[in-house]
Design brief:
Length: 365
Amino acid sequence: MNSLGIYIHVPFCGKKCAYCDFYSVAWTKAAAEGYIAAVLRNIRHYSDKSRYVDTIYFGGGTPSLLTAEQLRAILECIRSSFVVSADAEITMEANPCTLTAQKLSELHGIGINRLSVGVQSMSDAELKVLGRVHSAGRAEQAVLEAAEAGFDNISCDLMIALPDQDKESLRFSIERMTALPVQHISAYILKTENGTPFDCEEIRSRLPDEDSTAELYLEMAGLLEERGFMQYEVSNFAKKGYESRHNTRYWKCSDYLGIGPAAHSCYKGRRFAVERDLEGFINSEVQQITVTDESPCGFEEYAMLRLRLKEGLLLGDVPEHREEIMKKLPPLIKSGYAETDGERVWLTPKGFLMSNSVIGYLIFE
Ligand code: SF4
């Protein structure tokens, strides 16, 4: 039986953050109800008892704006439409402000067993610039209450290269975050997306330059590893055994099915995306998709994704490219960007930082 991951995109947010261009709209009770009905319809549409689902991921947006009852209905529908493995990893992204002790206990009770909390920073000043609605103290409380509710697989998001951020404020955030009962950290370099409030000179002039960003990234990777969070992907760090199983699907070209406006899929030999349109999603019998790739996971894509992982590219998987890759490696190894043991090729933290150019040179030149 083929395994499958299911991604549910929940397109609601309480307030738009200043840097974000993910697809999300304001939450209303009526829109949330229409959305849930459409999600259930679509899960039934894709129903396939020959697939066993071993990861489910509620992303967004802010999935924690949904009630435990609404999330339970989605999980039940997935269980009756696919075979869900008993130890499936079921993740929900959550905004600290939407979590209470009671809600956390309900979420744990319906089978969500991994939380990904959008903390971003442990500095109130930085959170304010980002336009986040929570404070560092609120985030801390949410994580502690999640652990008390029974969650033993908690991830926090951390953003680096923020306006005015320096090594000291980054170290402060990492120390405070890693003192919490968390097992996983996703650390992203801030990008100024076109059309967001961050897309302006006032913000750009306060961002660390390229060299300072590189220093912050390497500092972050070093500090996290010192604290037991091993880097397993360009932006992801985990204690042993807590690597995200769902996200690893993306980097290993494994099948995942996305449901909801703006969700992406790599499913049954095609990549496709759902339109960024909540109303259209609610009013269509089946979600409207655009096929973005008719034959995904060819050599270039496979190698590119594998090189995002610390595990790297297994040369035995691409025997016809082995010689060419090995020929290009020496200067990358000499400069500290990559390493090999003859069977695998993997990037170092310095290589991850330059991953686009390093991977481009290895795979496309
Ligand atoms: S809560 Fe997350 S998805 Fe929503 S606007 Fe903020 S960053 Fe974007």
